[in-house]
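fyi for ur records
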Amino acid sequence: MLELIEEHACFGGVQRIYKHGSKSIGLPMRFSVFLPAQASSKKVPALFYLAGLTCTEETFPIKAGAQRYAAEHGIALIAPDTSPRGADIPGEKDAWDFGAGAGFYVDATREPWAQRYRMYSYVTQDLREAVLAELPIDEKRLGIFGHSMGGHGALVLALRNPEIYRSVSAFAPIAAPSQCPWGVKAFSGYLGEDREAWKQYDASELVKQASRVEGGILIDQGLADQFLKEQLHPDVFERNAKAAGHDVTVRRHEGYDHGYFFISSFIGDHIAHHARVLCR
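which gave:
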């Protein structure tokens, strides 16, 4: 059951934050949802947005400016938190890029993380089932997108679950996590040292065998992004995707960095990209 935490009128619709129980994680979780005006009379398509390192369920609705475009297309926006909260695991808050606020959208298999850090199952199962059960969301018209760590998550979830997510896009994703410090740290900590096990959460590996995504894959990347060279590697994903026959568009933008000024500049294009698939 969803517990409403707060609600605000927004572009003719409502912006809300909910709390609910998660079977996968075993703790209460929070998420935000924007419901456009159309949701008052019918079920609407929905986009799941996965945020990046250190973010919460509030970051996207406050900073991205997405509600204006979602209202125009009649699309709901759903943004979960980025990790469990209150797991009380020793060292959970010691680093900004691992543990609290850094769940990496994987199901951890290594202790002491395996019981609580199950963000892959939370997003694909618990969160999805909760919003479909209690909100006016059309289960056949779901898309997913995200930023940085969340861009990684969006690509992985879409490529592994084409029966759930019909459209996908990403902002500055960690596109080849097995080849960058953030990903190696997270995968080693959550999954162990077996690099074969990492491939199930590496979009650049998954795209080699995945079915083609309806509407293609859109990625936007700022060329002034301080993390581009060491952490993100969109070129690896682009190369592997094109080799496998995917329709992938990687747009590179001079002067833009890794933050939400970049995201807000191109969020309208991403909503439109998904709308072309979900609003037919």
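The chain has a mean pLDDT of 98. thats all i got for now
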